Amino acid sequence: QVQLVESGGGLVQAGGSLRLSCAVSGRTFSNYAMGWFRQAPGKEREFVSAISWNGGCTYYADSVKGRFTISRDNTKNTGNLRMNSLKPEDTAVYYCAAVSGGSYYYTPQSYDKYDYWGQGTQVTVSS
Questions:
Q1: DSSP class of residue 43?
Q2: Alpha-carbon distance 26 to 8, whole Å?
Q3: Which of 8, 31, 85, 114 is 20 to 30 A distant from 38 in Cα terms?
Q4: CB contact at 8 A, 104 and 54
Q5: DSSP states of 90-120 as a string?
Q6: How many helices and strands in the chain, by DSSP H and E?
Q7: What's the mean pLDDT in 26-40?
């Protein structure tokens, strides 16, 4: 079993930055690809970004490309999402997720590909 715990959410003004972290425990983190998703009130959960098990491959939703950066540190069992130039439309609950295995390029964008989820952290961007 894998446990994921997000942190780093909060309230920020438009144009500001936040850094979300995802602490992973229970299994060897380096065996898992990791993704970030978000869900705004009344909307479906949407893909934000994903990173392969060794960090060699990343993928971003068009809406965050160039503003968000995903990373991971397998020695610390931690994943991160750096969010710059935040916009009010980035307001949502952000979730990290993990799925085992995959190739060097494995960065799944569909939520149903992931086996483990954190509880979420709220990000609110004021205008």
A1: S
A2: 21
A3: 31
A4: yes
A5: G-EEEEEEEEE---TT----SGGG--EE---
A6: 0, 11
A7: 91
